[in-house]
Amino acid sequence: xxxxxxxxxxxxxxxxxxxxxxxxxxxxxxxxxxxxxxxxxxxxxxxxxxxxxxxxxxxxxxxxxxxxxxxxxxxxxxxxxxxxxxxxxxxxxxxxxxxxxxxxxxxxxxxxxxxxxxxxxxxxxxxxxxx
Length: 131
What we know:
By secondary structure, the chain is mostly beta strands. The protein contains no helices and 11 strands.
């Protein structure tokens, strides 16, 4: 497994499949598949994707997203359930007010339940992609 720190802005999420949020203290991990790259990412010489791995955020103080579940088959839905907000509980006792924090925003498809995740915003100190 390889770890690439940074380069979050060189990832293309619109076709990605996102897993559940796994929180350990101030670390947030999300399984991802069907992840593609944009030009300038260090993995670009190996191809633009799709990649599978983990999105790892360190020093997280906040994580929230909008989930809109599909009614029926996601490829041909018969409608959508009302959107709902999900806010992850993070214990951020080790984060200092002087720490530099970044907002990481992304979107993607969630398999269980079948839904579109929009505006997933993670406020954290750092990001690492594990593939």
